[in-house]
Design a protein that fits this description.
Helices cover 69% and strands 3% of the residues. It is mostly helical.
């Protein structure tokens, strides 16, 4: 029996990466009539967008490797590798915006929001995954 969970993750993760690239590199000009707030609860909206864009990264990337059949040390290595690969991905998106795109600006604080979003996503994954893997052990462990 095919593992629907792993297949869906393996489809969703590349779509997610393409979506992040599109949002980072596209020129998203909004009409002047739209009243978009600059701050929400004192936090710049642009940082909230960056946080939200990178929050799902570890949640989608780590299950890509089917952790259920691995030892704990290997699971830890995969989690840290995925996290640092996400940092590299975030850095590359900001560097491309800064040096290669005319209408976009790379920002160190956007990069910090990206890392904070990935950290929150990793923490969320580490909290949610163990109980889910026990509950759906049959679904997750099938290849």
């Amino acid at each position: 029996m095919r593992n629907v969970f792993l297949i869906s993750i393996r489809i969703l993760f590349p779509i997610y990466l393409l979506s992040v690239c599109l949002l980072c590199f596209a020129n998203l000009a909004f009409p002047q009539e739209m009243d978009i707030p600059k701050f929400i609860l004192g936090i710049p909206v642009d940082k909230i967008v960056h946080f939200t864009m990178f929050l799902p990264y570890p949640i989608l990337a780590i299950p890509f490797f089917n952790l259920s059949k691995m030892k704990d040390t290997l699971k830890f290595r995969i989690c840290t590798t995925v996290f640092f690969a996400g940092i590299v991905f975030a850095a590359i998106t900001e560097l491309i915006q800064k040096y290669l795109l005319i209408d976009r600006n790379g920002d160190i604080w956007d990069f910090a929001a990206d890392i904070f979003g990935m950290s929150a996503g990793l923490l969320l994954f580490l909290i949610i995954y163990p109980p889910l893997s026990r509950k759906f052990r049959y679904v997750i462990t099938q290849s």
